[in-house]
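It would be a great kindness if you could assist me with a short task in structural biology. The matter concerns a single protein, recorded as an amino acid sequence and a row of backbone structure tokens. The record follows directly beneath this note:
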Amino acid sequence: MSDITTTSQIIPVILCGGSGTRLWPLSRAGFPKQFLVLSADDSNQSLFQQAIERIHDIGDAHIGHTLIVTNEDHRFLALDQLRELKNIQATLLLEPSGRNTAPALTLAALYAQEQGDDPILVVTPADQTVKNAAAFSKALKQAVRIAQEGAIAILGITPSAPETGYGYIKTTSGPGKSNGQFIVERFVEKPDAQTAKKYLEEGGYFWNGGMFVLKASVWLAALAEFRPDILEVSKKAWQEKTSDASGDALFVRPNPKIFNQIPSESIDYAVIEKCPASAFPIQMVELDAGWNDLGAWDAVWQVGAQDKDGNVTNGDTLLSNTKNSLVHASTRLVSAVGVENLIIVETADAVLVADRKNSQDVKNIVGQLDAQKREEKNLHRKVSRPWGWYDSVDEGERFKVKRIQVKPGASLSLQMHHHRAEHWIVVKGTAEITNGDKVLILTENQSTYIPQGQTHRLANPGKTPLEIIEVQSGSYLGEDDIVRFEDTYGRS
């Protein structure tokens, strides 16, 4: 039996559009931090999965379908991770471009109201971590009760240090507080160090973690009051939406041409910061639960399981006379000797070494990668695809070698290449190969050749993963040399 006294349906809204550039090289545009396993618990869940389960763990029978607001590029990453969660049903609202969080929440509110109710939306970013699940559930239940009464509830993080990387919530003193519940006086921008220290000395200031609880109708009414331009264009894009399904998951797409005309604005700037002393009451619930947004590698070190020397390690690592450092190994042995306060992150194609106190500046490296148009900004050597993955294990002039895995029952698109030929060798499982007008069934140790310009397709008709080695040869081996004729995943 739930202890939340509400008959309204509760809809989790997971905002899943960030890129997490400060956690490069592990987090990249093609596989951002919300899909990484970074926290120190034993769940082995990504931040995205944790965000969903935290809301469902409040144990209320009225929790409805989860709404995931993400983009086309990440839809199958999200779907794969959703399927690892038990008893979670979700709808994915796919943005054609990033327009910040206010349009994202507006899509969720419009969808929620279309279902014939006025549900309570529990809105959270997908890339945060919380150590104390019980404290989070208690605060969230209190916020839901506030929202049921028609007010906006925001979770305010108990500050543990004069942090300059967060905006702050200023609450009223005296009678404004009741059982961890506060009246919001105003919002203040990210302060400098001296101002942040003053906030903590004065008291009544909390970090703004970007978590809100409110009815769908309240959001839409407040948006109509404060930013009718965002609401008007969002409604037009929503009215011309399309949808399709992948298994039991629904993809909903607003009209891309109209959506791209929506002003880009955050939830805070568009509405929340204008609510104090307005017709839209806003209250804050204090959240003291070991919250962290993992905004930089130093934050990952802070929440990690530190050994007696203050080190946090992951993967195959060996340390000697090393203190207060984070060492993350993805593909090989990484050792550190006689160092302190370092961040060392190794992946198959990049290594980061940084002073912990400068870990926010990793974004500068990402900026340089972007300026040089290097693929290390966007993709790992191992790249996830809706049908499985590929790993580019070697390449040189006029050749590239890939290891490819295809999920049971999945297939690549029917395609051709203008500039390369391909050799395929099956190393595990069964492959169904369309090669021109022929269809072949190959098993372990068998191979075939795909000539340049030949229409072809690779599929896995079996019940176990298919693995092949692909050797490409030709004058141009870029991923954009693909002409798709048919595609299960809507990419043709």
About this structure: The CA atoms of residues 420 and 474 lie 4 Å apart. The chain has three domains: 10-292, 303-369, 382-486. Residues 10-292 form a domain with the Spore Coat Polysaccharide Biosynthesis Protein SpsA; Chain A fold (CATH 3.90.550.10). The chain has a mean pLDDT of 93.
